[in-house]
Amino acid sequence: MPTTIKDKVKKIIADTIFDINAVVFCLTIGIAVFLTIASVAIAKYQIVMFDVDQTQMSTLFTTTAQIVGGLYGLTLTAYVFFVDKFRDSQRMMKRYMMQQIRFCQICSQGGYQFYVD
Q: Of 27, 22, 26, 49, nearest to 38 (Cα)?
């Protein structure tokens, strides 16, 4: 069976495509390492990126604190909603499983008879 160049190219591409999770993980680690090295260099050589006075600095700190507090509150709110939905789905699943067990018990006791042709 002759293989065409198109089939060979498809095979090579399929063999060389990376798993997307591995690519995202490696990119995340690479960015984290780069930012760490950059922040160490900035701290060592005392590079001033922004020239701010005391009022501007306090404004930046309070704004950052408000953002962090808001994200924390949103996270807690989402957690509360998801926990309730998870409990409800667990109850429904447990109820469904109990119905299936009861059905199997009835069938095994001879309550229902199935005929197979």
A: 49
